[in-house]
Write a structure and sequence with these properties.
20% of the residues lie in helices and 44% in strands. The chain is an alpha+beta fold. It has a six-stranded antiparallel β-sheet with strand order 1-2-3-4-5-6. It is elongated and about 60 Å long.
């Protein structure tokens, strides 16, 4: 979970000037595809001071192949979108996350005897 440097203030109720400070960003339901080298996930904004506050959901998309590798976060209910291009060391790092995740899961399945075999890197 990420503690935001600056909280996102959302109106507490319709027509009110009072706000609730959403200060946590959680990434859930992560899908990392080693074939396309892409990550898709849900993001959730939370209020650490009030666990009963409604969760605000959005999407995270990381595409590391094609003509324009990008990372973006979109939270439609707040009319929020942020995206930027990935290149160089950042692009290589993200592709490494995906490959490492895949290799660790495969190796883990073998280590707990769920799968009988020998793990090799790559897809």
């Amino acid at each position: 979970m990420i503690t935001l440097t600056t909280s996102i203030n959302v109106p507490s109720e319709l027509g009110s000037a009072a706000t609730t400070a959403y200060n946590k960003l959680r990434i859930v339901s992560i899908t990392a595809d080693p074939n396309t080298l892409a990550i898709n996930a849900l993001v959730q904004l939370l209020v650490s001071a009030n666990a009963a506050a409604p969760i605000i959901s959005g999407n995270l998309s990381i595409i590391t192949t094609g003509p324009t590798p990008t990372v973006s976060i979109q939270i439609p209910s707040l009319n929020f979108y942020s995206g930027f291009a990935l290149s160089g060391a950042s692009l290589t790092a993200v592709q490494g996350w995906i490959n490492t995740l895949q290799n660790n899961v495969e190796s883990g399945l073998i280590s707990i005897s769920m799968v009988a075999g020998t793990q090799s890197t790559g897809v």
